[in-house]
Structure formats: structure tokens, C-alpha cells
Design a protein that fits this description.
The protein has 152 residues and is of the alpha+beta class. The protein has one domain (3-144). The protein has helices at residues 3-27, 58-78, 84-106, 128-151, and strands at 32-35, 39-46, 110-118, 121-122.
Length: 152
Amino acid sequence: MKKQTIFLLSGIFFALDLVVKQVIRLFLTHSLPLIPHFLSLTYTENRGAAWGIFDQYPILLIGIAIFFLWFLLHNIKQEAKIKKITGLAYALILGGLLGNLFDRLFFGYVIDYIQVFLGNYAFPIFNLADTFLVVGIILWIIEIIRGEKHEL
């Protein structure tokens, strides 16, 4: 995948995340069940990471995001040829990182709104950027494992 395509896709993912968060922020006034007892839209302002951890250390969370942003950009720059799946993983991770970093820098918190329930357990509320990050990291790990198998 061309590096320009990776950056274009990451920009699209970032923009999509920003638009959805702003719509949620402006129009979601109460929890909205989408699938009863399983999936709801619930606006929350998360000053920490998952489960609100490190909410007292916003500078640390910003620093971690900037470090991983630099690390990913450095990786992309160093790779001569990037497979499509790896490129998609990079774009998802970049878009997710930028989405949550933007929130932290401009609002002081991350806008979260996706709430999932499994029985009596409620997962921490998350957002589209978080989803991009998780899917991107899973794809990246799969590609790393697949690459190692081919080297053996």
C-alpha cells in the first residue's frame, strides 16, 4: 500500500471520529438504547483511559499518544514496501490515535458514547477511535505473526 493511501485513510478515520463525536456531543441528551440490554449510546467525558484509569495524569496520556504517533510514523517511513493489511492497520491506529489525542488536547477529556452490556456486566464506554485502535492493533499483530511464520 502506498504511504499516501495510509495517510489519506487515517485522515478519513480521524475525520469520521471527529464528526461522530461532535454529533453525539451536541445531540445526545440521554442514554439511547440501540439493542435493548446489549448496546446503547451514552455520552460520557472520559479524562482517563479505559475504566477511567490514569484520569489524574492527562499529560501522561497525551505523552503516550504522542510517543505512539511518532513510533508509528517512524515505522511507516522506514518500511520500503507495506502490505495492504499492514497499511490498513497503520491507518486505523493513526486515525484512532489522532481522534482521541484531539479530544484530550482541545477538550481535556475524550468523548465516549458506545456502551455494551453482556448480561449484568457493562463494558467501559468507548468511542469509534477506540474501535479503530483495537481493530488496527489486532490486524497489525496478525500480520506480525503471519510474517514470522513465513520466516521460519
